[in-house]
Amino acid sequence: MLPDSSLNAAYWEQRYAASQTAWDTGAITPPLLDYFVQLGPPDARRILIPGAGRAYEAEYLHTQGWPHVVVVDVAAAPLADLHRRAPSFPEEHLLQQDFFALAPDTPYDLLVEQTFFCALKPKLRPAYARQAAQLLRPGGTLMGVLFDTTFSQPGPPFGGSREEYHEYFAPYFDFVHFETATNSLPPRSGRELFICLRKK
Ligand SMILES: C[S@@+](CC[C@H](N)C(=O)[O-])C[C@H]1O[C@@H](n2cnc3c(N)ncnc32)[C@H](O)[C@@H]1O
């Protein structure tokens, strides 16, 4: 069950159906791309991308040969779009599910965040940090970008600050990197943090 019905699967399906997807950059973004490039050749790492949307980063990793990339989204439409763009992406790695309902069976090594955290009601932020930690192995990494800005329109996206986010993640993670990204897309420049957190 989604914890907040007002931003439920139907809401997100409707956003995709109406092409109200301003968050969708149409390609992998530089902060994620640069991080993946420095990982080196593909290995057996288990990678989870929650609230993945059209998941250009999953398509990139798959094309590079990373074998275990799992994308999760409550909406069917973006997953179908990924399947259309990358037909050889394993269907069993396309999960139409609620991130908060994922069971921590086999832990992941890497969890990738981009505009999922900001799409959730802010009251869910502590639960996001807890669930991310539950799904990672000790020493596993939560990597990605978080908005460090406020928005004038009602959310989603919901803004926030580095100081606020620190509180949510500190109980579960060591902070390897938590600074303003230097390689953001121009509209996001100076307004997002690049985060690399290691599960305790
Ligand atoms: C703002 S979009 C971001 C999509 C993608 N990360 C990107 O950067 O293009 C938020 C996504 O999270 C999905 N979503 C919202 N709540 C979710 C939940 N509880 N579990 C899984 N996915 C969820 C939505 O369907 C939507 O695709």
Your description of this structure?
With 200 residues, this protein is of the alpha/beta class. The protein has one domain: Vaccinia Virus protein VP39 (Rossmann fold, 3-Layer(aba) Sandwich), CATH 3.40.50.150. The protein has helices spanning 9-17, 30-38, 56-64, 76-85, 125-135, 162-169; strands at residues 47-50, 69-73, 94-96, 108-114, 136-147, 173-180, 192-199. The protein has a seven-stranded mixed β-sheet with strand order 3-2-1-4-5-7-6. The longest helix has 11 residues, at 125-135. The chain is globular and about 40 Å long. The chain starts with 8 loop residues before the first helix and ends with a strand. The mean pLDDT is 96. Bound molecules: S-adenosylmethionine (SAM).
